[in-house]
């Protein structure tokens, strides 16, 4: 084991020196400051729908797992899965990495059976949903920031299928798409959010975006339509986000509630999530990036406490 040898005088005295609690910069240590950090994420307009991109046309003669053999699937550790965020050839042509709703289509009446879709959510946590089969049409998984699928690893039927089944990504006007931006440590203080638009987003007549987390999609900020519809070319001056009183309070100390394997709820770091709700048909246009600056572990909601 290595050893560390200190030479010269060592600064002494209390580091935490507030009247009750909290460390005050410059009180007892010279040239100290709070650790600042930032995260950035580049993103494009979500890829267009691919109705058989997860499962090409197939049937089952009994309860079984569908074969994930669509163009959007890739083989990972010997298993075929839908996970475009891993960087397959498909995901590099457009931004297929958005978590989104999944559509199951049948050429016959399969309303007498169910389909269970298993995969991961926008945070990469396990996600599963069971839906009633379609009757000569298409049914969809729940569409929300918390319920969208980032990946699909299995689709199981509860019985034999009547019609030919295809499964793919969906894209209907008003759908919600979401993607992770990055991790902000627990109780950090947000100091700024900027958006740079390299190519204007033009799906429909409005493109509202929000920055939040999986259970609160506008937890941190809203992005005005005008920001996403105008190319930002002024260097460090990114487009402005909109922050209301509730979001301003949140910026002082961010946290995310989680439930552990023991069933106990606790607070943790925040996975920042971008939610996009275009009102029109998706297009190939739209390129931007977001930068979030924060003071790490600086809880302004409680003064200078850690």
Give the secondary structure arrangement, pairings included.
Elements: E1 36-44, E2 50-58, E3 73-76, E4 79-82, E5 102-106, E6 114-120, E7 126-132, E8 138-140, E9 151-157, E10 165-169, E11 177-184, E12 189-199, E13 209-213, E14 216-223, H1 225-228, E15 241-242, H2 245-251, E16 256-259, E17 265-268, E18 270-276, E19 287-295
Antiparallel strand pairs: 1-19, 2-10, 3-4, 5-8, 5-10, 6-7, 6-9, 11-18, 12-19, 13-14, 13-18, 14-15, 16-17
Task: Give the rounded overall mean pLDDT.
Answer: 83
Radius of gyration equals 24 Å
Approximate shape: globular
Q: Tell me the series of helices and strands, N- to C-terminal.
A: EEEEEEEEEEEEEEHEHEEEE
The tally of strands reads: 19
> How large a portion of the residues is in β-strands, by DSSP E?
35-45%
Q: Give the low-pLDDT segments.
A: 12-31, 88-94
By helix and strand content, what is the structural category?
A: mainly beta
What topology, given as strand order, has the largest sheet? 11-18-13-14-15
How far the N terminus sits from the C terminus, by CA atoms, comes to: 32 Å
**Number of helices, counting only DSSP H or I runs of 4 residues or more:** 2
As an assembly, this protein is: single chain
Estimate nothing, just give the exact number of structural domains.
2
Biggest sheet, open or closed, and with what strands and sense? Answer: 5 strands, antiparallel
| Residues in helix, % | under 10%
